[in-house]
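Look at one such:
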Amino acid sequence: MDITLTNGGVTVELPSDLIWSDELTWSSVAQSKERAIFGTLVIDAMARNGGRPITLQGDGDSAWITRGTLEALNLWARTPGLRMTLDVRGEAFTVVFDHGEEEETRAMGMSAVIDYADKENGDYYCSLVLRFIEASETL
């Protein structure tokens, strides 16, 4: 099935062999625990509203994508807080790019299949990584 990212009326087809690496590791429950003054354990739990990380990544030499498509994605990634619709094999999410808090974390990652000096829109890149955060909160 297809993976697409939509911004307004523009839809970008993403490589279908991207793997959703953190699909089953996020918890929809937030929890804190602490000891009360007499040693009793106090646990607070609540449902999380949004914030789920969605990391789509290629495995080695997979997830080939053209430079032209990457440039379009990069333009979207440079728009702070841009909400888009990510459709992953029939399941739709409202997402923003995850730029992370660390300098090493990027919203996008990839490597050139062949690193040409005079790059063109049709040149292919592989090992694509796209990092999103689900933004389901009400504005």
In short: Residues 29 and 47 are 5 Å apart (CA to CA).
